[in-house]
Structure formats: structure tokens, C-alpha cells
Amino acid sequence: MKCRVCQAKAMIKIERHHTAFCPICFTDYVHKQVERAVADERMFTRSEEILLAVSGGKDSLALWEILIKLGYKTAGLHVDLGIGDYSRASRAKAERFADSRGARLIVHDLPNELGAGIPQIAEKTDRPPCSACGLVKRYSFNQIALEKGFSVVATGHNLDDEAARLLGNVLHWQEEYLDKQSPVLPAAHEKLVKKVKPLYRLAEREIAAYSIMNRIEYIVEECPNATGAKLLVYKDVLNRLEENAPGTKHNFYLTFLRRRSAGSAEFTEGFPTCQRCGQPTQAGGAARRKAANDSGESALAGATASAPAAHPSSSQENGGARSPLCGYCRLMERVHA
Ligand code: SF4
Ligand SMILES: [Zn+2]
Ligand SMILES: [Zn+2]
């Protein structure tokens, strides 16, 4: 098997593109896919400084490496979740990467900042750990970006993550989540920063291969709370489909993006804001759909507005009585009660 570009010995085959690359040309292919994602979705420019959410796993560290090599201005943000050995090892990987590249890393230590890590927050609020973790991470990324003056937050979600998430959302017709599933969530409110996913065109195995070829040291162990996560089941199903029909994940997710009309960022305007922190108090799915229905649009053609402060499973966000506090501030009230 030869590299499609230079005819040297290929090290990785990419079935969905009927092609294969040597390590040098593969690295070039990965960089081009990210450049294309950034350009197609107008994620950011070289004059902006990007805050990159860095877990210590392969995706976020590979993205950091790629953006540095492509000449973008970046700083990393690691949220220490306080999940025992897993968090200690993850933080060490993020710190070592930043040191070795001379890059700036901001660490937000939940046990120090909030007096509780994810296990304690989950216990005190009776929420599944991943639900509490997702809410706290989204809020922290946004809040720290605002405080430190970043206009965009990048995360390392890849094609497998997005296709699995789409499958879950479609299986359960989670219209509110479908509304928000996009490689770019605009800054739809003065207290929200833009969120982008520059790896959405790259499969997980490609990012793993890139990390190995580029000697990136990442945490291999999964978070102990990941066991049995639905997303992993959806990934497994999609991997089996992909084996039979290469390109399934790519077609599923990228066709979804193409077929959906471009979203509007304006729907959070006029939304109530949290009395404590000033962020929007609801994800806006119900309100956006109402606005879309009022204007004759379908729910799927709706907005891609982001509202990281909210948690869509709570009754307030799903049409019940509105709370004067956002999801995060309600969570923190219970943690510190
Ligand atoms: S598996 Fe759950 S608890 Fe662990 S890092 Fe992911 S979202 Fe957080
Ligand atoms: Zn080559
Ligand atoms: Zn709030």
C-alpha cells in the first residue's frame, strides 16, 4: 500500500476516502481538514486568540498541536474535575504538553474553586455525574473565556463524537439538542462566547494516529464515569456500520449539516438572564421552536444558538415556571446548601 501523495510506504488507510498516506502526508491531510473546517464554518482567524478546552485526552491535545503548528494563537484551559486519579493524570498530561510547547495553560480547579469536585456535586444535587460535569464544564469554559477576554472557545469533539451525538438525538427526537448540534455555536448573547469544534471532519482513529505519529502524550484511561455511557454505545453501533460501509459516519453527520438551513444566532435576544451571573436562564429550545413555528419554519431549521448555562432536562427549561437563576447557579445553590 503506497501513499497517495508521495508514493512512499503508507502507514494509514482512510477507507471512506479510498486513500492511504505515509506519516508526513497524513499529518498534512489532518492539518488541511482542520483548515477546511475553520474556513468553511468561519470559526476564527489568525488574529484572534482561541481558548482551547484541554482535557488531557488525545482529541484536545491533538487539536492544540494542530492549531499551534498552523500558526493560530491559542491558550489551553483545563478544568480539574476532582475525579481522583483520573483527574490527577489528566491534568498532568495537559500541564506537560503546555510546558513542552511553551504554551499558556489556565487551570480551573473545581475542588479549590467551588469546594467540591464532580463526585461531590453529583451526590449533593442528585444528578448523574456526567450531567453535572457537562453543565459545570460548559459553564466554566464560557465564564473563563468571558473573564479573560477570549472571543472563541474550541473543543476537541471529532466526527465520531458528533455522529454518535446526532444518532442519539435522532433516535430520541431531541429537537432541542438537534437545534444546537453544530460545529459552530455563535455568541448569541453578550454573556456567551462563540463555541467551535475544528475536528468535526476527522474520525477518532485518525486523531489517535495523528497523536501517535506526532508523539503526543495523552491520557489513555477513560474517566471512571464513562462506563456504560450511551454515547459509547452509539459509537459502537456506528463503528459496526462503518465497517460494512466506510463513510457512513461522515455522510450521516455532514449531510445533516448540509441539509439543515443555516442557523440564526439571534434567538436568545430578549431572553431572561440569570439574576446571579447574567447568563441566559434557558437553553432556548422551546422558545426558539415557538419563534420558528410563529414564523412558519420547521424546528430543525431552527437556530444554533448556544446557552451553556442551561440544562435542558430541568423543568424550567422545558416550558415550566422560569427560574430567575440559570442551571449552573441553581446547581451551585444546591451544592452549597
Ligand atoms: S465521563 Fe462524565 S464525569 Fe467523566 S469527564 Fe466525561 S462527562 Fe465528566
Ligand atoms: Zn506521502
Ligand atoms: Zn447564573
Write structural notes for this entry:
β1 (12-14) and β2 form a beta hairpin. The strands form 2 sheets. A 6-stranded mixed sheet has the order 5-4-3-6-8-7, with helices on both faces. Strands 1-2 form a two-stranded antiparallel ribbon. With 337 residues, it is of the alpha/beta class. The chain is built from 13 helices and 8 strands. The longest helix has 20 residues, at 129-148. The N and C termini lie far apart (62 Å). α1 (23-40) packs across α9 (204-213) and α5 crosses α6 (129-148). The chain has a single domain (12-262), classed as 3-Layer(aba) Sandwich (Rossmann fold). The model is unreliable at 283-288 and 290-320 (pLDDT under 50).
List keywords for this structure.
337 residues, Rossmann fold, two-stranded antiparallel ribbon, binds iron/sulfur cluster, binds zinc ion
Uncertain runs: 283-288, 290-320
Spatial strand order of the main sheet: 5-4-3-6-8-7
- Provide the CATH topology: Rossmann fold
CATH top level label: Alpha Beta
CATH architecture descriptor: 3-Layer(aba) Sandwich
CATH superfamily: HUPs
Task: Report the radius of gyration as a whole number of Å.
Answer: 20 Å
Our measurement of the CA-to-CA distance between the termini, rounded to an integer number of angstroms, reads 62 Å
Number of helices: 13
